[in-house]
Structure formats: C-alpha cells, structure tokens
Design goal:
18 helices, two-stranded parallel sheet, alpha+beta, six-stranded mixed β-sheet, D-Maltodextrin-Binding Protein, domain 2, 2 domains, globular
Length: 456
C-alpha cells in the first residue's frame, strides 16, 4: 500500500504534468496571478519515493525565497529514447529538462535546444568545464546549448548479499570477464537467481553492448575529420561480448529468464534481489534507492573489467537544457534555476553544503560516485565540503572509487547514437533468445545497417 504522503505527492505531480502539457505550447511566459514567472522543471521519474519529493519541495522553497519572481512547478520526467522525440515535438516537456550526452548532438543538428552561450559566459562556467565534456553541448557554430551537470563511468554493480550466499567475498568483486562468468554461475547455482543480467531493449541493449565492446578494447564507430563516421561494429571485441552473453545464457544457465530488460526494469529486478551483477552507470545507486527501494546494505560497485589492446570505461552523463521555443523571460528564469539547482553545488562550498544538507535531512543519497564535469581536484574538494552529510555506503563502493582513475574514459559514439543503439538491441535480443544465433552474420549485417544510418 502506498503511504498517504506518496499518494498526495503523486497526485500533485500528475496535475503538474497536465499543466506542463498545456503550458509548454504557449508563446509567452506563463505567469501567476501575482505576476511571477511559472517555470516548469524536470524532477524525478514516475515512482520516486515521497522523500525525494520532500527534498525537492525544500529546495524549491529555498530557490523561491532567493528568487521571489519565479514560481517553480515540478514535473515528473524520465528520458527514454523511443519516446523523447515525440514528447519534444509535441511540446509536452518541461521548460527545463535533461538529456543524455548521446542525444545532444542530434538535438543540436535539429536546432531543438536553446542557445546559452552568453549566459554561461556571464556565469563564469565556460572556462571551468572539462573541454571534452563541454564538447557535448557545443554546436557546429561554436555556440553552447546546455549545461553539462553530471557525468559517470559505466561500472559493474553487484549484490553483496547474493555474493555471500554463493560463498563469494563481496569485498573482492571480479576483475576479469572470465571471473564475472565464474561468479555468475556460482551465484545461480547457490541461489537460483540470475548471476548476471544485461539490458536488451529500448536502446539500452545497444548501449550496454557498446559498453562491453569498449571494455574489451574495441570501438563501434570511428569519426573522420571531415565529419563523417565509419561503423566498426563487426570487430573481435563486440563479438566477444555476444559470445560472453551466449555462454551465460545457453551454456551456464546463469543469465536468467528475463531477456527483455531496459534501464528501469533491470534496476527493479536488481533492487528486488533477483540479479547478482550487471553493468550500468556508476551513478545508479541514487535511483536504485530512491526509485526502486533498494536495501543499501546489499549494494556493491566496482570498475568494469578491462581487456584487450585499448580498453576503456565508456562514460556518459546528462545536460540541463531548455527548448528553443520558450520566451526570453522563461529562458532567463530557466538559467537561474539551472545555475542554482545544478551548477552552483559543483563550484561553491556554501551551495554544495546546503544541497547536501537538504538531501541528507530528507533521506536522499549524498555522495554517490560520479565523474567530474569540471576538474578532478574540484570534485574531490567538493567531497570534503559535503563529508558531514555523505550517507551512501562508500566503503561498499571502494573497488570502484579506488580504481576508476586508472581507467581510460571513452566517450560514446557521436553520430546517430540512439538510432544505432536501437539497431543493436535486436542483435543482443537474438543472441539471448536463439541458441543457434549466427553472431558473425548478425555483426556483419549490423555494421552494414549502421553505416547506412551514419551516411544519412
């Protein structure tokens, strides 16, 4: 049964969403009866717990106290590849929302993001960003179209309780893919649960296939200086990922029966204790606890195993952006919110401390491992600022935090990223549903199909 508070908050969020659908299409700024600018901002995915909304309400009040001319309206929001373009075209998104790095280039090419070059310069952020990160929001015209707010490395998440039930040491997670396979079978044999699982639908199958390829030293796409790109999906590293999945599913029986999981459903399964290990972003702890009810005591995090000649950890992140259709007043209010809610806590001790204190007091995660969008030095200094409020079990994440700086970060493919991910979904699904799948043929066809997308 849902708590009364959660039912009330869900109702409020639903009403806010309806308001957003009606309000985003308007050409002029929405104003309250007392003349305030109404700013609709993305909050959490549907299903977030009441404490998350309580924390947001506290932050909303803090912002509105400092900006009495702006009225914040929180809107439930979750980016999903197959539906995002429809939402954007239909004007049903909040005024301020977030998109993955991978989607930004397509949005820039389609002129679907608001330019913020002058605003970022005025705030003094332009020269503070990691240049690689800033590239994600830089258009072909050299102008800036969003604020990078968070970055992560893909990592191996594991269930410490299932490790112990299988006689494995949760403080010594696997360091090679052979060990991952070995541990997965041991977990399944001891517990009956999926020792290892992987996303396979809604573009996430292609995403995690690319993660595995990069970790084994391969690349699925090569960029040329003239702006073109070459599909290189058909390589030994990608083949190695698919053979690994095939072995888990058809030889070891340790993959589990569910082969149609995406970001949300795999997190749900992991939080329920049904999965021993899976790969995803290093920032996943917050969502697992906040949105899926994970018992923090079972959470473990380590770096993704690397092998091959040029391996790396595929990175990612998201960007706070605005639609180019909003008016100047709403844009100005949106920049104020992005600066206050997302950016200041990365640079300013007072803002970082207030944010951490507010989240901590509402039972929200503070201290989840991330990668710096600014500098490593500033990121590590910010951890010192917020140390009194860190409440995540970082001792259960030391296999990641101790080793991630030794791994080479690799950016996601830049052209037709989500379209190619969607194409690769079917490759992953075929391997997981057909014991006799011809991996060589699948890769050859996928490379041809992906090149056709890149040549468009």
């Amino acid at each position: 049964m849902k708590s009364p508070a959660r039912v009330l908050l869900a109702g409020v969020a639903a009403l806010a969403t309806v308001g957003a659908l009606a309000g985003c299409a308007a050409g002029d700024a929405s104003e309250t009866a007392d003349g305030k600018i109404e700013l609709r901002v993305a909050t959490f995915p549907p299903g977030a717990d009441a404490a998350a909304y309580e924390a947001f309400a506290a932050q909303e009040k803090q912002f509105e106290d400092e900006h009495p001319d702006i009225d914040i309206i929180g809107v439930e929001y979750e980016w999903e590849g197959p539906t995002f373009a429809v939402q954007l075209a239909g004007g049903s998104l909040p005024d301020v929302f977030t998109v993955p790095f991978t989607d930004a280039k397509t949005l820039l090419e389609n002129e679907q993001l608001m330019e913020v070059t002058d605003e970022m310069d005025e705030l003094g952020y332009t020269d503070s960003f990691n240049p690689i990160i800033l590239d994600a929001v830089t258009g072909a015209d050299g102008k800036l179209y969003g604020f990078p707010r968070q970055a992560y490395a893909n990592a191996l998440t594991y269930n410490r309780d299932l490790f112990e039930q299988a006689g494995l040491d949760p403080d010594s997670p696997p360091t090679t893919w052979d060990e991952v396979r070995e541990y997965a079978k041991q977990i399944t044999d001891a517990t009956g649960k999926a020792g290892y699982s992987q996303m396979a639908i809604n573009n996430t199958g292609g995403w995690q296939l690319t993660v595995g390829t990069v970790a084994r030293g391969g690349r699925t796409q090569l960029d040329s200086q003239d702006g073109s790109a070459e599909s290189t999906i058909d390589n030994d590293a990608t083949k190695g990922v698919l053979e690994f999945l095939h072995a888990l599913k058809w030889e070891d029986g340790s993959f589990g029966s569910k082969v149609d999981l995406d970001w949300g459903t795999i997190n749900q399964e992991f939080a329920a204790g049904n999965i021993g290990m899976y790969t995803t972003g290093s920032d996943i702890y917050t969502a697992l606890v906040r949105d899926f009810g994970l018992d923090s005591a079972v959470y473990g995090l380590t770096v993704i195993p690397l092998e091959g000649d040029d391996p790396g950890a595929l990175g990612g992140g998201d960007i706070a952006v605005m639609s180019p259709t909003i008016d100047d007043a709403t844009k100005a209010a949106g920049v104020e919110w992005i600066d206050w809610y997302y950016m200041q806590k990365l640079l300013d001790e007072e803002a970082a401390t207030l944010d951490a204190k507010t989240l901590n007091e509402s039972g929200q995660a503070v201290g989840t491992p991330l990668l710096p969008v600014l500098s490593r030095e500033l990121y590590e200094e910010s951890l010192v600022w917020i140390e009194p409020y860190i409440n995540v079990p970082r001792d259960q994440m030391t296999p990641f935090t101790d080793a991630i700086w030794d791994q080479s970060p690799v950016g996601e493919p830049k052209k037709q990223t989500q379209a190619v991910y969607a194409l690769l979904d079917s490759v992953v699904q075929t391997v997981l549903t057909d014991e006799n799948a011809d991996i060589d043929a699948l890769l050859a066809q996928a490379q041809t199909d992906a090149q056709a997308l890149l040549d468009q």
